[in-house]
Q: What sequence folds into this?
């Protein structure tokens, strides 16, 4: 039987797509990735020559100020909660339907007033070696964990990059575990991103993830590491990716827990085929159970709509919400903890678990991160990173870096956790990261995996290192 006219048209269209697709793949594979970046300065006084730049590395201790804690507790105890609460059938709605759960935030308030001990946290943090060094006009803070007894041996240098709303605290457990591992000699570097924690905030515009990549490469160079591995999630994954693109000769390996790939028409075609025809067009067998629920475009749009508001706000008007958050510790805690809850659970878990899904962490872990933002007064500068990223995209500047692939010489590990906020299938991720050495799908864990699952995280790093 001859093909009907419609079938013939469909066949021709598919053929044309296949040819364009094939041609594009060939073309992309041949394009040599070579990226450059403008040298920018973010401090107050632009130096006239490199002579008056300060390259020294100064030891640093985390400061503790009693008056800061007193002021915070005072503000917390005076929190003005919204009344009346919503009732359904004369019962309080305890879910997170309208935003972060009220019972949980009251529990957080009581804990901050009666139990939480920032002084003890600072003392514990100061058992680590902290330093500051000036790069691009800003003092950059970092923790360094090294086997002091083996300082001259060959070391495996690893840079850990945190994201938002997180901090260098996120990697301390992993660093402790790796440091006590007997097989390898590590030099672990855990910085605070510019505008986060104890790193200076930029005084000039333009501190986007690509510029942070340049600062971090400078940091590693200054510490004597011309070759190193980068680990990161969230912004840390974006910054690490830019580092691998800009400095493929230095980045010996990149391990990320969140892979955001600029989606092209080719990817939409793949996603549509994967969704409407057969998942195996898009997903390898091991990914299917794990990822398939993400590829209902409608569900994904719903997630973006429900969970993406903060992104829009911070990418357009970070300072406005910043006034409120920098003035109210409970407001700040609710804003930050909602993210830790949402991004570590799936939606069903949150309303069913006690403490809105925060029980994946200890309250001390969670509140140390919040109080770090509070005492350093950095929530506004941290949120501006979204603004700078959005400016970078809309200006088209560094477009090549944002959309282009890594050099095939850089080995990459992609570690997917079940409750991570973004997923991309391996076939799509490969277009950006051509040399994936390790692809893991964990059935538990979320966005802050290094803190939620430090053992698993450290084990994956060691697995990756064996393949480099
Ligand atoms: C809401 O929480 C309060 C206090 O924890 C509790 O007494 C009440 O039963 C809860 N209501 C619902 C609908 O879960
Ligand atoms: C790292 O290991 C060295 C050598 O065992 C030890 O002296 C140091 O205290 C450890 N650092 C941390 C932060 O655990």
A:
């Amino acid at each position: 039987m001859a093909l009907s006219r419609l079938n013939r048209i469909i066949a021709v269209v598919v053929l044309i797509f296949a040819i364009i697709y094939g041609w594009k793949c060939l073309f992309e594979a041949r394009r040599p990735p070579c990226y450059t970046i403008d040298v920018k300065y973010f401090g107050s006084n632009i130096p006239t020559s490199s002579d008056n730049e300060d390259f020294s590395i100064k030891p640093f201790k985390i400061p503790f100020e009693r008056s800061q804690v007193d002021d915070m507790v005072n503000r917390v105890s005076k929190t003005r909660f919204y009344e009346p609460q919503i009732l359904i059938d004369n019962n309080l709605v305890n879910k997170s339907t309208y935003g972060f759960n009220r019972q949980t935030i009251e529990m957080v308030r009581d804990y901050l007033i009666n139990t939480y001990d920032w002084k003890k946290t600072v003392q514990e943090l100061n058992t680590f070696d902290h330093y500051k060094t000036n790069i691009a006009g800003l003092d950059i803070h970092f923790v360094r964990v090294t086997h002091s007894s083996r300082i001259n041996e060959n070391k495996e240098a690893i840079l850990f990059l945190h994201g938002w709303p997180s901090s260098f605290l996120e990697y301390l457990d992993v660093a402790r575990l790796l440091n006590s591992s007997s097989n390898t000699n590590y030099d672990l570097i855990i910085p605070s991103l510019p505008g986060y924690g104890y790193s200076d905030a930029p005084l000039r515009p333009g501190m986007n993830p690509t510029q942070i990549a340049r600062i971090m490469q400078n940091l590693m160079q200054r510490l004597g590491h011309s070759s190193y591995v980068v680990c990161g999630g969230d912004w840390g994954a974006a910054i690490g990716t830019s580092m691998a693109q800009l400095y493929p000769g230095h980045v010996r390996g990149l391990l990320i827990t969140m892979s955001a790939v600029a989606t092209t028409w080719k990817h939409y075609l793949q996603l549509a085929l994967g969704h409407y025809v057969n998942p195996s067009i898009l997903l390898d067998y091991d990914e299917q159970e794990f990822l398939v629920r993400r590829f209902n475009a409608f569900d994904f749009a719903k997630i973006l709509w429900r969970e993406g508001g903060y992104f829009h706000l911070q990418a357009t008007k970070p300072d406005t919400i910043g006034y409120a958050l920098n003035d109210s510790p409970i407001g700040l805690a609710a804003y930050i903890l909602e993210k830790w809850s949402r991004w570590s659970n799936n939606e069903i878990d949150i309303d069913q678990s006690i403490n809105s899904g925060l029980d994946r962490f200890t309250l001390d872990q969670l509140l140390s991160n919040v109080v770090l933002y509070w005492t350093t007064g950095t929530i506004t500068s941290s949120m501006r990173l979204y603004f700078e990223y959005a400016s970078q995209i809309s200006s088209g500047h560094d477009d090549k870096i944002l959309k282009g692939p890594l050099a095939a010489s850089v080995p990459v590990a992609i570690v997917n956790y079940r409750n991570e906020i973004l997923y991309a299938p391996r076939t799509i991720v490969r277009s950006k990261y051509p040399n994936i050495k390790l692809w893991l799908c964990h059935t538990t864990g979320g966005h802050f995996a290094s803190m939620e699952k430090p053992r698993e995280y450290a084990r994956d790093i060691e697995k990756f290192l064996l393949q480099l």
